[in-house]
Amino acid sequence: MYKILIADDEQKIREVLREYAEFEGHRVVEAVDGMQAVELAKQEEFDIIILDVMMPRLDGFSACKEIRKLKQTPVLMLSARGEEYDKLFGFEIGADDYVVKPFSPKEVLARINAIIKRNKQVDAPADIVCFEGLEINFTSRDVKIDGVKANLTPKEYDLLFYLVRNKNIALSRNKLLEEVWGYDFFGDDRTIDTHIKMLRNNLGPYRKYIVTLRGMGYKFEAD
Amino acid sequence: MYKILIADDEQKIREVLREYAEFEGHRVVEAVDGMQAVELAKQEEFDIIILDVMMPRLDGFSACKEIRKLKQTPVLMLSARGEEYDKLFGFEIGADDYVVKPFSPKEVLARINAIIKRNKQVDAPADIVCFEGLEINFTSRDVKIDGVKANLTPKEYDLLFYLVRNKNIALSRNKLLEEVWGYDFFGDDRTIDTHIKMLRNNLGPYRKYIVTLRGMGYKFEAD
DNA sequence: TACATTTATGATAATCTTGTGACAAGCATT
DNA sequence: AATGCTTGTCACAAGATTATCATAAATGTA
What we know:
homodimer, alpha/beta, Rossmann fold, five-stranded parallel sheet, four-stranded antiparallel sheet, DNA-binding
């Protein structure tokens, strides 16, 4: 049983996909636009998210980007035939697959199953990382210090996750700004220092893993 | 650059895919039937294998199964439109994606890139150079002397890194100033001497690699 | 060997960087 | 509107780094 989020403004499409998905025993949640999809994706854990490209309020691409900031839930995009440029863009944006309308529901379900299977397999072993008593769970997005859940802010999670994903790699402030804050952030370099400070405070004894590289940036150092 | 195996009995299809793939800088190997594809897949390592479903001697599904017994190389299947049953079967058999003929080569390439990127999630090896007990890690930005971490200042790192990257090349003070200090540095030549001194002190027994070129500059000399 | 050059070294003051606390703006919730 | 939480910016002190200079040592040459 998979939990599936279907976001499309056309009720008919939602209905037909829901029918097929429920026939296979999956649970379906519906969203009528991109905004709602992002909201739901934030709140709950889905096995896959299906996004229509053309939606009111927030389009599928933007919704996908937004969701990818927080979760690695697989995304399948739906769009009208012939938008080849969009198709390519869809892959670059981090979508896992792409289906063209009008589609066969069977095909969509087959792709859903394939994507989820792939994701479950690939991500399962690398899900949680530990460094002594510091436990980082990328999927559920939490961090435990000696078994106790740390209360990190979103930025702190993002920063820690990026550092850990790139452990033992020297990361300049610019690189961090670009990767964690986004290429469109035009703020101060030193903002990072403050967030590093707060992150260190929250990591307690494991603050030692975050190493300052003077004149350069920071690094998460561990084997 | 990816290494791609294309298996299809139609020469035209192989040609058009090869053309697009090579345009993107990939290397292509062709097979005209399933048997040949399996043979090649056994012998060489590919980043992705593209299999047509309908092929003489051994069909794409059987070839995929055969290949999957030995390797986890991602597989993309090609097949004539409307073979929906085949499509489902294709995913279950372990194919990573499925494209229906007639396809757009661009779409196929986009899918190829997406699949490979997904599978290539292994992190690149660190950039490390050793000279006897002197270990220089460019990626994590640290230097070890007989296994013990050296504590270099930023300038010392930069200077050492530049020297090592240009080992066995005579580097004038001007060149060093320009490359390590920057074109906008208007200080004294002799500043370098001081930094070379400190660097040598920090390198312990391996100070010998930094050679003075009288009347010229310095050089990192090693094989 | 003696001399002229060039490089190595030690000391030091000026300069840069970072860690930190304070604070205000932004945002969602109440 | 009030509250609480998160974020980005700033200023300042502590400390590390750097450039410079004077002097010693080394090198090459006549």
